[in-house]
């Protein structure tokens, strides 16, 4: 998607343009936030906060940077801020790390399979897989966002997929 | 059957996308935008009360720093955050013509040399069978080999590319561009492009010419639109008197990224379409290709890694053909066959079920070497 015309329209208070950008980017934003905060309802709040920050700082966005990277950096920083706040605030209850899913229209079986796939891999690989598969980001974009070399991202992504495939094979052999 | 990489990706994508919450209704768009509008923005430099002389001096220093950074990275402008290396920045038109001509004719040339069985007799079996080595990858190796041949000069690195522009000695054409690239086996490969250019608008040009590669002359017709450091280039390469069989290449450069789209047409019929992006980072170059023909979709990730004195290519592939899926990885070594002094690609293929086999493929880009050069390169690769 070419965001430049939508950004111009948003600056002119075009709510439909904002809606279009939101729907195009929400999966990538969620994929960025969820592995950091590990809690669905908290991820929802951070998502809301991300888009509010995006609107408030839309004048500071510079065309030479890719818009999606700029937005996902806001999402990452907002998620990390929230995490830091929670670790300092002893009155807040610990994050429920199992609550990543709610029952929706999808079958219980695919939900459990997906949950298990993601539980097989460390957080670092989980984030890369979600950004690539759910957020549709390219390896280079992920490398820039996470501040890691491109080769590392490619390696970790392929490693994660292989882990899931090994699980599949062992299930089949059983 | 074990789930392929693509099936796993699909499962995760479908499930997680359903889980994405919708918070749009919780965002008061107009309230936020109105608040942004009424807040008076005071630039930081106005908040400081500096004497006039110090302000001027600070301004000069800032401008000097910006200019220094702009030229320090080769004149390509400020790097976006997180970028460690620039892609090939095709700014001059002759560079764009050269790269697009090289890519399209090399790919076309190699496809012509490879067996056409894939395109003439598409596989009807819809499964891959380990007992007969009837893997899907066997059908697509000619296509992969064609891309590898095309990409090898690019994979050898940006710095190994030199362009010379001069008047063409051929009276039919105005310009000649000769350029030399270096392959992963340190061979030089020469390309020669002759062309005429017509300006049809401020930023729009037509190009027509010929490219000579491997002793074969290809006709070229192209169109380019430029806008600052962004451009769109379309080029068609075909053999003289066979204009119903051609490669059409479209290169688009926007937001510091370049994408390449190909369409291969044979006897008037589209055989395949593909798109490619190339990413650079330190010692790694990664080309991602999505290919589609009448019965299959193929995803390729071609990675060039430096491994000590050797250069290797890795290909991660994912093929969907009718109801069958197959994925795997390929290690490509460049080996010298001393019987004919030619370099070949040695493909070591590991399919998803861990079955491994090797295949040797010819490279069409080679120039004859003298005996000393052969010994030097042989020692380097063995």
Describe this structure in words.
The complex is a heterodimer of chains A (174) and B (382). Chain A has 174 residues and is mostly helical. Chain A has two domains: 1-93, Rna Polymerase Sigma Factor, Chain: A; 105-174, Winged helix-like DNA-binding domain superfamily/Winged helix DNA-binding domain (Arc Repressor Mutant, subunit A). Chain A has helices at residues 4-11, 15-37, 40-56, 67-88, 108-119, 123-134, 139-146, 150-173. In chain A, helix 1 (4-11) packs across helix 2, helix 2 (15-37) packs across helix 3 and helix 3 (40-56) crosses helix 4 (67-88). Chain B has 382 residues and is an alpha+beta fold. A 15-stranded antiparallel β-sheet of chain B has the order 1-2-3-4-5-6-7-8-9-10-11-12-13-14-15, sandwiched between helices. In chain B, strand 6 and strand 7 form a beta hairpin. The radius of gyration of chain B is 25 Å and the shape is globular. At the A-B interface, helix 2, helix 3, helix 5, helix 6 and helix 7 of A face helix 1, helix 2, strand 9, strand 10 and strand 11 of B.
Provide a compact summary of the structure.
The complex is a heterodimer of chains A (174) and B (382). With 174 residues, chain A is an all-alpha fold.
What distinguishing features does this structure have?
heterodimer; A: 174 residues; mainly alpha; 2 domains; 8 helices; 72% helix; B: 382 residues; alpha+beta; 15-stranded antiparallel β-sheet; globular; disordered C terminus
Total DSSP helices of chain A: 8
Number of domains of chain B: 1
CA radius of gyration of chain B is: 25 Å
- The termini of chain B sit apart by 39 Å
- Low confidence ranges of chain A: 90-106
Strand content of chain B: 35-45%
Largest interface, counted by CB within 8 Å of the partner chain's CB: A-B, 62 and 54 residues
Portion of residues in beta strands of chain A equals under 5%
Task: Kindly state the number of beta strands of chain A.
Answer: 0
Give the % helix of chain A: over 70%
Topology-level CATH name of the largest domain in chain A: Rna Polymerase Sigma Factor, Chain: A
Average pLDDT for all residues of chain B: 73
CATH class category name of the largest domain in chain A = Mainly Alpha
SSE sequence of chain B, one letter per element = HHHHHHHEEEEEEEEEEEEEEEH
Domain unit count of chain A: 2
């Amino acid at each position: 998607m070419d965001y430049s015309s939508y950004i111009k329209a948003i600056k002119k208070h075009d709510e439909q343009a904002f809606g279009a950008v939101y729907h195009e980017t929400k999966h990538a934003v969620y994929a960025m936030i969820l592995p950091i905060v590990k809690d669905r309802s908290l991820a929802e709040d951070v998502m809301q906060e991300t888009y509010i920050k995006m609107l408030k700082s839309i004048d500071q966005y510079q065309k030479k940077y890719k818009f999606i990277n700029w937005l996902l950096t806001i999402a990452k920083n907002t998620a990390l801020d929230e995490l830091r706040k929670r670790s300092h605030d002893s009155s807040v209850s610990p994050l429920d790390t199992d609550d990543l899913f709610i029952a929706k229209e999808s079958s219980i079986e695919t939900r459990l399979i997906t949950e298990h796939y993601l539980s097989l891999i460390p957080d670092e690989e989980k984030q890369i897989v979600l950004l690539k598969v759910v957020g549709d980001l390219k390896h280079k974009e992920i490398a820039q966002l996470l501040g890691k070399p491109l080769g590392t991202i490619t390696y970790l992504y392929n490693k994660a997929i292989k882990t899931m495939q090994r699980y599949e094979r062992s299930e089949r052999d059983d | 059957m074990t789930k392929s990489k693509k099936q796993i990706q699909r499962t995760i994508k479908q499930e997680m996308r359903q889980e994405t919450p919708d918070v749009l209704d919780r965002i008061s768009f107009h309230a936020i935008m109105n608040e942004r509008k009424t807040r008076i923005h005071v630039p930081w430099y106005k908040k400081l009360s500096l004497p006039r002389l110090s302000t001027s001096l600070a301004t000069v220093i800032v401008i000097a720093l910006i200019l220094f950074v702009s030229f320090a990275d080769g004149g390509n402008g400020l790097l976006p955050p997180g970028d460690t290396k620039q892609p090939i920045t095709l700014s001059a038109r002759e560079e764009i013509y050269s790269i697009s001509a090289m890519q399209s004719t090399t790919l076309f040339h190699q496809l012509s040399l490879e067996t056409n069985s894939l395109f003439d007799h598409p596989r009807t079996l819809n499964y891959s069978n380990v007992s007969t080595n009837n893997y899907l990858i066997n059908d697509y190796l000619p296509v992969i080999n064609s891309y590898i041949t095309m990409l090898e000069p690019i994979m050898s690195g940006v710095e190994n590319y030199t362009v010379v522009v001069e008047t063409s000695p051929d009276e039919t054409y105005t310009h000649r561009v000769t350029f030399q690239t270096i392959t992963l086996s340190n061979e030089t490969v020469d390309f020669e492009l002759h062309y005429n250019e017509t300006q049809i608008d401020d930023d729009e040009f037509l190009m027509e010419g010929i490219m000579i590669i491997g002793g074969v002359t290809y006709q070229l017709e192209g169109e380019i639109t430029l806008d600052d450091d962004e451009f769109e280039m379309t080029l068609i390469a075909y053999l003289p008197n066979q204009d119903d069989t051609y490669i059409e290449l479209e290169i688009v450069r926007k937001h510091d990224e370049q994408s390449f789209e190909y369409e291969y047409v044979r006897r008037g019929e589209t055989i395949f379409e593909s798109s490619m992006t190339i990413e650079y980072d330190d010692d790694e170059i990664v080309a991602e290709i999505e290919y589609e023909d009448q019965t299959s979709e193929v995803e390729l990730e071609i990675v060039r890694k430096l491994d000590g004195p050797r250069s290797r290519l890795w290909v991660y592939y994912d093929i969907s053909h009718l109801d069958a899926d197959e994925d795997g990885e390929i290690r490509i070594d460049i080996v010298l066959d001393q019987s004919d002094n030619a370099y070949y690609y040695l493909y070591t293929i590991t399919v998803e079920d861990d079955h491994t086999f090797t295949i040797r493929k010819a490279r069409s880009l080679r120039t004859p070497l003298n005996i000393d050069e052969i010994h030097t390169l042989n020692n380097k690769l063995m």
